[in-house]
Amino acid sequence: MKMFVAGEWVDGANRLEVRNPFDNSVVDTVPKATPEDVERALAGAVEGARIMRKLPGYDRAKILRKAAELMGQQTEKLGRLISTEEGKILAEGIFEVSRARETIELSAEEARRIGGEVLPLDGAPGGAGKLGFTLRVPCGIVAAITPFNFPLNLVCHKMFDRLRRGCWRCDRRGSARAKNQLYRQQGRRRTYLQGRWTEESHDGAWLQ
């Protein structure tokens, strides 16, 4: 399997094994990202943030609904990937996929309802007859580390909530194969998503 960096599927010189916790069998291998890969991913974030910032809520909702539809079409396949990687029973893997799809659908609905606030300013001297207002705008680049225990649903909470707000996202591994499948489903919008996998001891120290 390859990793997704700066809009491209790339390999690495070194690889990490993904093992089934139940029987310790090798499920797949993933590239071990280097600091240079991280820098490249962050550089690609600039372009991704620019695109997402200009995308209206309607278009973001449309993308998210498509992602939910594609996930629903591959529920059993993704559920089996989760089951294999996490050592969970198949029913739990499939249930997680259904929860992840609901997460994306909710994000799609909320993408069209991102508003601000209007506040009366008459609580202060000179504020009579005046109103203040706030607007919610994309904050830019969001870096995230996803847990392993619910690798698909939790990454969807972090990924698609940010996308519905118009933010670009750089993600570090949770579930390698299931997440990889998710990225491939949304390849049409590949600039917005980046996935890479590193060992915790190496990556955590470097990012500090």
List the keywords:
208 residues; two-stranded antiparallel sheet; 9 strands; 50% helix
| SSE-based structural type | alpha/beta
Report the strand count.
9
Assembly category: single chain
The CATH architecture term is: 3-Layer(aba) Sandwich
Count structural domains: 1
Please give the radius of gyration in angstroms. Answer: 19 Å
| CATH homologous superfamily assignment | Aldehyde Dehydrogenase, Chain A, domain 1
As for the CATH topology, it is Aldehyde Dehydrogenase, Chain A, domain 1
The low-pLDDT segments are 175-193, 196-208
| Terminus-to-terminus distance | 27 Å
Would you write up a description of this structure?
The chain has 208 residues and is α/β, with parallel strands linked by helices. The chain has one domain: Aldehyde Dehydrogenase, Chain A, domain 1 (3-Layer(aba) Sandwich), CATH 3.40.605. It is 50% helix and 19% strand. The model is unreliable at 175-193 and 196-208 (pLDDT under 50).
